[in-house]
Amino acid sequence: xxxxxxxxxxxxxxDVSTCSISLPDVSxxxxxxxxxxxxxxxxxxxxxxxMWRGQLAGLAADFDVIAPDPRGFGSSAVTPGxxxxxxxxxxxxxxxDALDVADEVVLCGLSMGGYIAFQFARLFPxxxxxxxxxxxxxxxxxxxxxxxxxxxxDKVERSGPEELVTGMLPKLFSPLTQAQEPALxxxxxxxxxxxxxxxxxxxxxxxxxxxxxxxxxxxIRVPTLVLAGHDDAISPPxxxxxxxxxxxxxxxxxxxxxxxxxxxxxxxxVNATIRTLARARAPGAT
Length: 286
Ligand code: MLT
Description:
Structural class: alpha/beta
Oligomer: single chain
Radius of gyration: 17 Å
CATH superfamily: Alpha/Beta hydrolase fold, catalytic domain
Shape: globular
Largest sheet: 9 strands, mixed
Bound molecules: D-malate
Helix content: 25-40%
CATH architecture: 3-Layer(aba) Sandwich
Distance between the termini: 36 Å
Number of helices: 11
């Protein structure tokens, strides 16, 4: 393991262990901190594990926090072409095996990470202790949105991510964050710009064909939090509240003064909510 550190908003610089884990067909970079029930954090598109700096710092006393860069992102290896949400979810299971994590995990995914979390819940329900669905959607892309993603994938592969990043960045943060935290916005922009163009394209193609998660909502059996930034312009809170109502053990929580990047914008409020899952048990569990 290599020692590293991240500076989290509202927290001192903290030590985080990072390492590369070789899975059968890919090597993934993973940041880890703390001990306790495993909390697996899956970031949004096109970011990296640093998105979770506030959770790596603030939840290490409650959880064994594990924050990978999925394939194609951050310092993980890239698979060109297409990576489906199902494929990302299978990587997470393989990663848990490689890390010898046998306990059930609380899985927290933001946006694209949420799409992956739905597929993990479908494929590996026995590995879940809880779910946190942050600023994400259960509905698939409309045909028009899917077509636009495929076009964007080709464009990014050809010309790089600048245009995509310029279009996306203003939608990620609340007006308050944009006005008061330019350094946070700029750091996020830099991470997006550094992401490998083939990784971005592959994830765009995977997201374009992601399945509709709405039919599976009523079969989710673990304690679930659905967290929405009040000003989320990408995953509207009203839509998130509606899908939360379909999950039997879900609680919907709106995070004030936050947009699509709620865990990065308001880490303390998000952490306090996630902490409620540290000791939660699925209904009927002994
Ligand atoms: C994300 O934040 O992961 C993206 O907004 C997901 C998407 O493009 O649907």
